[in-house]
Structure formats: structure tokens, C-alpha cells
């Protein structure tokens, strides 16, 4: 590992908060829709004061929660997820005998409801179940039915209610597909997927009948792992880049499509078009952009390019045609964006709108006519992922609200926007700044 770099993930908008606090009866500006009764939870790394931090991705997870009910903001609280490594600084993910402890993880990337559980997720290990009041219940392997790690980006099928996901491993099996029952009680299907090697696979996509895999050239590096401290992954030009299409009713049989080398942390959505092609959209990093981003957050020196340039990533689409075996690629916009979200009821189905985060702003894309609209919060504002919550009885795809934590240097707010026109419906004043983090969910009471 390089030791000369600045720990940029401990400063500015990413700087951790030192403790856990509670606040009640939060000040609301505007009018909170009474039907927004539930909890907004958002996860992200928050290194403990005094403990070493080698990479932004390895800090212990902290969930920031806001409770809304009947037009009021009842509370804010923030809690670390009490994983094995949080409780015991000496707990090790890789044991001396080379075996992995899938509970010795930071649980810092996402927090999602499924069935009767709320799961804090990180892609290298088991989920941790957390309570509605944010206490940690413990690691969850769904009654012993999960035997690999679980991605932080599972996809709930809007029709079956099942949770589709995968686990990747640095040891074989490198990739395993899983299907969790709609009630969250047990994994009902697990199938190994053949890939050339261990890569950092952060996300995937589903369609009505298919799963879409991203097998991209950010590979596990044993030497980096033995060095300890950071993320043991690096760019590898020789690995190639491919997207895979797998029928959901025939897992294991994957059709691969070569694509231009890139990295994708996050997909937007995917669907099948009338011609039987798979259309995927996501946020694409060119090799040099990945290098710059990776170094900025603690990654090792990277042969993919000169990391002096600033990081950037663009909304992109890939159309995979089984008839020709080829992938068509298109950049959809020149803005630098991340954290794409959509109406989860349209996961795997044709969608029209995507919501993304740009520097100091939210950007809404209309994929039907190619237009976009922007809501600026100011260059100094740290704008979080926008979670879409449909209005009761919504018919239009953007009929509902966007929830996002927008933080400044000393204070933060949960903003509630009308998703149709990005106008501000309400703001909830939070009692402290909230570090820029990863992903969150709206968890309705019903
Ligand atoms: Fe993510």
C-alpha cells in the first residue's frame, strides 16, 4: 500500500462523526406528506475515533435514521452497526488458516428492508440485521441457507417479491447467484456462476426473465491483501470486460458480451426491449477515471492511467443483442453523476426516469425523450442518493417523492422533493452534519 497519500476519505464531506446521538421533534420546513410514515435509513462508513482507516470502503458502517409519522419528524439518531469487527478490533476477515469469517465485516454500504427484516449490507460478508430503532440484532444467514457473501445491491422482483442477489468471493466460488424468498426466511436457490477470476463486483441488474452480470477488470490482488489495511483490488488490463446475460429460469448458463473496458459501481436499471435485446443503464468509469477515483478513496497505485485527472463517471447505456452477440454502447450525458435510483416497482422493467447525484445537485433523467432537469443545492453541499417513494395510488412513474440527506459543513437536512418537478415539499433539520455515505432506503410502517 502507498502510505504517502492523504486520507481524503477522512476529511471534508467524508469526515466521520465521533459519536452516536439522538434528537426528538425535529424542525420541519414546509409540509411533510402525512402518508410518509416510516423510516429513512442511510448507511455509510464511519471510522471509529482512534482506529486506523486504510480505505473509504473499509470503515465500520453507521446508519443515520429519521423517523417520520403523520406529518411530523419524530426523531433522528445515528448508530454504528455492531458487527464482529466493530466490537472486536482484533477480529479478522481472513483467518490464519486461510478461511474467511463472513461476519467479520463492516456492514457499511446499504440498508434494505425485506420481509420482516432490515438488513445492513456490505458485499464481502453476511448481512447484519438491525432493528427499527437501529440496535444491531446480529449477522444473518437466513437460517443457515446463505453460505457466501451477499452483495449490497440485491434486487427485489416487483412481481414475485423475491430478493435476487449474488455473492462474490476472493476464493472459489468466485460468483454465486441467490434467490431469497419473499418473506426473507430462506434462500431458495443458489447457483455457482462461472467467471474467469475474482473481481470486485459491486452491482448487477435483473430483467423480467434475465440476470445481467458485470464481469469487469478490477481484480483481487493477493499481495495487496497480505499487505493489509486497504481494499485488495486493482485494475487489470488483461482481464477484459464483459456483460453476461443469464436466464432466470436456467441459472448458470450465461451469454457473455465483450464491452469496452470500464468499471461500473452502480447500474440504474435494465429491461428487455420488444426485439428481445437487453438494455442496461448504469454509471460508467473509463479506466483513467476509475484510477483517479480509486486512489482518491484509498486504493493502491493503479496501472490503468494517470490518476492526476479528476474522477468522473457518466450515465451510459448498453444494448445487448442475442441475435448478433454484440453490445452497443452509448454515453447518455456528459455530466459527472453517481448513485442512480428509480422507482423500485419498475426494477427489471422498462423505466422512464432515473435520479442521480451530481456535485452539489440532483439530476433527473427522462430516458424517453433524453431530457434532464437539475436541482442545485450549491457547490459546497454534499448531496446524498435520492430514494424514490411512490405516492399512494400513484399512476405516473414520477408521482411521489425523493428523499435525500443534504449536508453542509456543520448541519444537514433530510429534503423531501416532489419527484415530478424537483420542487421542495419539506425539509427536516437534522441536529448535526451527516458524512457523505453510500445507500439508503425508505422503510414504510405498513
Ligand atoms: Fe453501491
Automatic annotation (TrEMBL):
Gene Ontology biological-process annotations: carotene catabolic process
InterPro entries the record matches: Carotenoid_Oase
Pfam families attached to this UniProt entry: RPE65
Cofactor note: Binds 1 Fe(2+) ion per subunit.
Alphabetized GO MF terms: carotenoid dioxygenase activity; metal ion binding
EC class: oxidoreductase
This enzyme's EC code(s): 1.13.11.-
Keyword Disulfide bond carried by entry: no
Keywords: Dioxygenase, Iron, Metal-binding, Oxidoreductase
PANTHER family per record: BETA-CAROTENE DIOXYGENASE (PTHR10543), CAROTENOID 9,10(9',10')-CLEAVAGE DIOXYGENASE 1 (PTHR10543:SF89)
Record's keyword annotation contains Metal-binding: yes
Binding-site residues, Fe cation: 153, 202, 266, 439
Obligatory cofactor(s): Fe(2+)
Family, similarity comment: Belongs to the carotenoid oxygenase family.
Entry protein name: Dioxygenase
Amino acid at each position: 500500500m502507498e502510505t504517502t497519500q492523504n486520507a481524503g476519505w477522512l476529511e471534508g464531506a467524508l469526515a466521520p462523526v465521533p459519536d452516536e446521538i439522538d434528537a426528538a421533534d425535529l424542525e420541519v420546513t414546509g409540509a411533510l406528506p402525512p402518508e410518509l410514515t416510516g423510516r429513512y435509513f442511510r448507511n455509510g462508513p464511519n471510522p471509529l475515533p482512534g482506529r486506523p482507516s486504510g480505505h473509504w470502503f473499509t470503515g465500520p458502517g453507521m446508519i443515520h435514521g429519521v423517523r417520520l409519522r403523520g406529518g411530523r419528524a419524530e426523531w433522528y439518531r445515528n448508530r454504528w452497526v455492531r458487527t464482529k469487527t466493530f466490537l472486536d478490533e482484533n477480529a479478522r476477515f481472513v483467518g490464519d488458516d486461510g478461511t474467511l469469517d463472513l461476519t467479520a465485516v463492516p456492514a457499511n454500504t446499504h440498508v434494505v428492508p425485506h420481509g420482516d427484516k432490515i438488513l445492513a449490507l456490505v458485499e464481502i460478508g453476511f448481512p447484519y440485521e438491525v432493528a427499527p430503532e437501529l440496535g444491531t440484532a446480529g449477522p444473518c444467514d437466513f437460517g443457515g441457507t446463505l453460505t457466501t457473501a451477499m452483495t449490497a445491491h440485491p434486487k427485489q422482483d416487483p412481481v414475485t417479491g423475491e430478493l435476487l442477489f449474488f455473492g462474490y468471493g476472493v476464493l472459489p466460488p468466485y460468483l454465486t447467484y441467490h434467490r431469497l424468498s419473499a418473506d426473507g426466511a430462506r434462500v431458495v436457490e443458489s447457483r455457482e456462476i462461472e467467471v474467469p477470476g475474482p473481481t470486485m463486483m459491486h452491482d448487477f441488474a435483473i430483467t423480467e426473465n434475465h440476470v445481467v452480470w458485470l464481469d469487469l477488470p478490477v481484480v483481487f490482488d493477493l499481495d495487496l491483501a497480505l499487505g493489509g489495511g486497504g481494499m485488495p483490488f486493482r485494475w487489470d488490463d488483461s482481464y477484459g470486460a464483459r456483460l453476461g446475460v443469464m436466464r432466470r429460469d436456467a441459472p448458470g448458463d450465461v451469454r457473455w458480451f465483450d464491452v469496452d473496458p470500464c468499471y461500473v459501481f452502480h447500474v440504474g436499471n435494465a429491461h428487455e426491449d420488444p426485439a428481445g435485446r437487453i438494455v442496461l443503464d448504469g454509471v460508467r468509469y473509463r479506466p483513467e477515471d476509475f484510477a483517479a477515483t480509486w486512489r482518491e478513496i484509498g486504493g493502491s497505485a493503479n496501472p490503468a492511467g494517470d490518476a492526476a485527472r479528476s474522477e468522473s463517471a457518466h450515465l451510459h447505456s448498453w444494448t445487448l443483442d442475442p441475435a448478433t452477440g454484440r453490445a452497443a454502447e452509448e454515453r447518455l450525458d456528459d455530466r459527472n453523476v453517481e448513485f442512480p435510483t428509480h422507482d423500485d416497482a419498475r426494477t427489471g422493467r422498462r423505466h422512464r426516469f432515473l435520479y442521480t447525484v451530481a456535485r452539489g445537485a440532483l439530476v433527473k433523467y427522462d430516458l424517453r425523450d433524453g431530457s434532464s432537469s437539475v436541482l442545485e443545492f450549491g457547490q459546497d453541499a454534499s448531496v446524498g442518493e435520492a430514494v424514490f417513494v411512490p405516492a399512494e395510488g400513484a399512476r405516473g412513474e414520477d408521482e411521489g417523492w425523493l428523499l435525500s440527506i443534504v449536508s453542509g459543513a456543520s448541519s444537514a437536512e433530510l429534503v423531501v422533493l416532489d419527484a415530478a418537478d424537483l420542487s421542495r415539499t419539506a425539509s427536516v433539520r437534522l441536529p448535526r452534519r451527516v458524512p457523505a455515505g453510500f445507500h439508503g432506503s425508505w422503510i414504510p410502517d405498513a
